Structures are given as structure tokens and as C-alpha cells.
Amino acid sequence: MARITNHDSRITPLKIAPRLRAIMRQEYPRFSDAEYARRHKALAGVMEKAGVDHLLVITDHRAGNAPQWVTGWPGTVEAYAIFRPGEKMWMAVEWVNHFPLARKIARDVEVHWGAHHGLDQMVRELKRRGAKRVGTMGPLVVAKYRSLEQHFQMVGLDAEYIRLRTVKSEEELDWLRIGAALSDAGLAALLAGTRPGLTERELGAIVESAYIKHGGTTMIHYIGVTSMAKPHIYVPPQHHSPRKVKKGDVVFCELSACWWEYPGQVLRTFTVSAGPTPLYRDLYETAEAAFDAVTGVIRHGTTMQEIIDAAGVIEDKGYTVCDDLMHGFGGGYFQPIIGTKSRMAGPLPAMTLEENMTVVVQPNVVTRDHKAGVQVGELVRVTRTGFERLHRAKRGLFRVG
Predict the structure, then answer these.
(1) pLDDT 10s per residue in the chain (401 long)?
(2) Which of 166, 192, 207 is the last residue of a domain?
(3) Cis omega (within 30 of 0) for bond into 231
(4) Per the domain annotation, does 18 fall within a domain?
(5) What is the domain count for the chain?
(6) Are 169 and 190 in contact (CB under 8 A)?
């Protein structure tokens, strides 16, 4: 079992290639013109197939990332963008203090302040352009969607947007590598900084402090702390409690730091000032065996049944899971969303893995009585013949303190 010492806290954990550092040095990083041209060409293809003359890409009530993918602007409260191939895009944003930065970051877009009537502005602009049949990508509350239906024939294209995001470009993969490095930095800080007496909330602060200074932002940091002798939780909670770390505890975590909208995801388990109990060692070894078995079958063309079968080691050991075994990740939570034989995640998706999909493999093994569990896994890229690790974090059942 690997032991983490105080010396580790003095090591800078952000280890990335020079080309990725160049991206991070930009004031507000952008993809290349060729990458945006690729995206816009793909949108044009979707529009042609759906028979729409204009496309709305939307962030509303802080939900939806389509405007960022299309324009570069990470929509905050509202971003209503109009796209049509060959024309300059139009976008209304809220609020007025967000407007100056939106104008600076959005690429090749005529940006307007919505003035708390962004939807009305968008309707006027669509009418000015002669729009008749309009596609949408992104969330809108029912009242706003019905308002648009009063003026245009509306076509929802969210499923098509998800398909566009499922397979990543080479540039997107590089941004995901940055997100993975930032997430690894959070994990390294957590391993180096955890000690008896700290609360779960303080552990969360340790994680965030490691990547915010590099421009990363938090997507999630789920951290569970419980006694190995008398566990009270089997999966990390989504909100931190004031419970303090104690000698003999196990800490298990799921961490995702983002480089803009491109996150990593790393899941690990470690013990505090004591070795693992036989139960936790067995849970952990089972999870690692399942991770190796699942990644062992990953390649372009892998079927969903192959993945389920590979994870059977979990049930063979008498355990189950409390999370999805695998899910698509990077720009959203995508298919394939797969459970295991004992905890299915609905019907198996009718698909196979494709090269340059990015998926999280996370066999988070728990006892069948839901009293104890571990976290293991990370984000990987599907290749033609196997998989690529996007994270550099070491694997292992660590001991700290």
C-alpha cells in the first residue's frame, strides 16, 4: 500500500505537455479557426437534415453549454444565440455586467445586452431574418418555448447536439487533458493535506485550492469520510459535512475540475493513519480488478454486453455498485451509461464504443447491505485498439497521515 507523506505537498502536481501550457497561458483560451469551422459545418449538416432555416443555441437559467461550444462564450445567466451557415451569429446575453466580457470572448458574434428581454430581442431578430422553421439546442422553460411557437415552427435538436458532442476532436481532447491535470492536482493536494482533525468542508477547500490558481473551476468534489470499523456511508455525499477526519477512517472521493467546460474525473480511496481493514482491502481490490477488466475490453467497436460481462468480477466477489459503471463525459453526461448485472442502469444502449469517445470507468464497489464502499476510476479516451489514460494520477490504495 502506497504511503503519502508531508513531502508530497511540496511537489507541484500539475504536469502537462508544453502545448497544453500554451493554451493555459492565453488570456481567454479559444479553439482554432479550423475547430470552430468543423463545429459549424456539423451544425449546418444537422440543420439541413432537420429542414430548419435557423438554429437557436441556448443557455437559460444557468443551464446548457451549447453557446460555449458554438461561440466560445460560457453562457452565464442567459445566452440566446442565432446560428445560420454563412452568416455572422447574433447573441443576446444577461446581465449587463456580463455583456462586456461576452463581447470580448464570443467569436465572430454580434453580441447584445438582453436588457431583461432577450427572448423578445431574439424573436425580432429571427423575424428580421425571415425565419420560418427554427431548430433549438439547449434548455428553455416551457413558457419561453411556447412563446417562440407563436411565431415559428419549432424543432427540438437536443439529441443531435448530444451526438455532436459524444466523439471528441483532437483539440477537445487536449482541453480534456488539461481538465484531467487540474483534477489530478486536486487529488494530490487532498492526499497530501488530509490529516485527523480536519472536516470534510476543509478537505473540499484543500481540493479547490490546488487548481483555482491555474484557472481551473470546480465541477464536483464529492468526498466521503467514515470509520473503517463502523462505516456510516458507502458512497461520497454530494455536500460536505462538518464531520472530522479520525485515525482509522477511510476517505473516498470523486473529483472533477474543469478547464472551461472540459473536466477530468478521478476517483480514489485512501486510509488515514492506519492500514485498510480486510473488508476495505477486498472491496478495493475488487474495484481495481473490475477497472482492469473493463478497460481491457475497451476499443473502437466494443459492445455494451462486453462491458457488462467484463464487470462481472464484482458480482463474483459478492458485491454490487452504487453508481454507473461507465458513462460518457466531456461536455455532458452522455451514453453509454451502463450499470452492472446486479445494478443495471436501464436497458443497454443500442450502440458500440467509438474512437475518441471519452468515458469514465468507475467500478465503485459496495457491499450488498450498503454499509461500506470504495471509489476507483477515471476518465479515459477510447482508441482504435484500446484506451488512453487522460489522467496521470497514480492508482493504488493510499495511506495518509
Answers:
(1) 776 654 344 444 588 999 999 999 999 999 999 999 999 999 999 999 999 999 999 999 999 999 999 999 999 999 999 999 999 999 999 999 999 999 999 999 999 999 999 999 999 999 999 999 999 999 999 999 999 999 999 999 999 999 999 999 999 999 999 999 999 999 999 999 999 999 999 999 999 999 999 999 999 999 999 999 999 999 999 999 999 999 999 999 999 999 999 999 999 999 999 999 999 999 999 999 999 999 999 999 999 999 999 999 999 999 999 999 999 999 999 999 999 999 999 999 999 999 999 999 999 999 999 999 999 999 999 999 999 999 999 999 999 98
(2) 166
(3) no
(4) no
(5) 2
(6) no
Contact (CB, 8 A) for 354 and 347: no
3-class state of residue 186 by DSSP:
helix
Domain boundaries, position 112:
31-166
Global pTM value: 0.96
Residues 153 and 193 in one domain: no
Round to the nearest angstrom and report the end-to-end CA distance of the chain: 13
- 81 and 197 in a single domain? The answer is no
d(CA 338, CA 65): 24
| CB-based contact 233:252 (threshold 8 Å) | no
